[in-house]
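Quick illustration for those who missed Monday's session on complexes.
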Amino acid sequence: MSSCRVLARTRTAALLTSRIPVPSPAARSLPRLVRFQSTQSSYENILVSAPKPGVGLITLNRPKALNALSSALFVELNDALKKFEEDKEIGAIVLTGSERAFAAGADIKEMAPLTFSDAYVNNFIAPWSYLTTLRKPVIAAVSGHALGGGCELAMMCDIVYSTKTANFGQPEIKLGTIPGAGGSQRLTAAIGKSKAMELILTGNNFSGEDAEKHGLVAKAFDGGHQEVLQGAIDTAAKIASYSRVAVIAAKEVVNKSQDLGIREGVEYERRIFHSLFGSQDQKIGMKAFAEKKKAEWSHS
Ligand code: DAK
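Prediction with 4-(N,N-dimethylamino)cinnamoyl-COA bound:
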């Protein structure tokens, strides 16, 4: 085993066994989950843990501002995402907030005094899109408000789970602006032009239950934050139990469908499918099936 792998195993083992001596308010709201120590005690706006083997959990944690997405929060979020992306023991990531808010949008108080040149020259909120560059799957577990940038952040994730009562919306029109982190594009791709146009032009909110009906949310859960978070962690653990090579390839081909026409997309898929015959895990998976055994993935 490489030293890198040993280090990664040691780090994850530490995550899985460490207990928080005094749980934070966010952690206290998760009674049925085992609680783990944050990997980065210096984080002020997020909590990081590994609730199950293979699963990295990031909890947005600015309760006083309903998890409004400040620049400082994004520095920490991107740092934690990068660490999970690089951690060989992590196969899928869950991003969540609190019972009251996934995130109530970009931090309006930070944005309000910006001038055009502040925003343009400093490329304000450019780091938002880092999440979309990850190769490992990210699942959003949404309860409470997911408004503006909060809704956009959820839509950047690969799978969105929510409570039925979650409160989604792109209310930027009410602030004299428009969605700025991909909302007009991703919402339209997810639910169609007419419905997206109605929601963006009126700024009306919509429930998790409606989001599921329109196809924005993969599953809307009865119950509260605990239920949706547990659902997301379980799905992440299932994904993490498969070959990392196949999971990354599957995410890549599904995402390609957003950019390519059906014919080019099918050809792209076939090329990636062919290439997987060069992986160890294709041999391991098919041999295990034939021998009626459980596949022990090499992730190579
Ligand atoms: N920013 C800053 N603080 C916020 C906030 C926000 N987005 N949302 C809530 N807060 C703060 C409130 O100011 C309040 O702080 P204190 O007054 O206690 O100091 C605290 O959180 C609790 O909020 P409320 O007292 O308002 O709580 P309620 O339960 O009464 O109402 C609410 C909850 C979510 C309905 C309400 O807070 C609300 O309407 N919030 C604003 C929602 C919103 O408009 N969100 C969209 C923001 S615009 C870009 C990319 C993205 C974006 C922009 C540019 N680029 C790449 C350039 C994104 C823009 C947006 O997201």
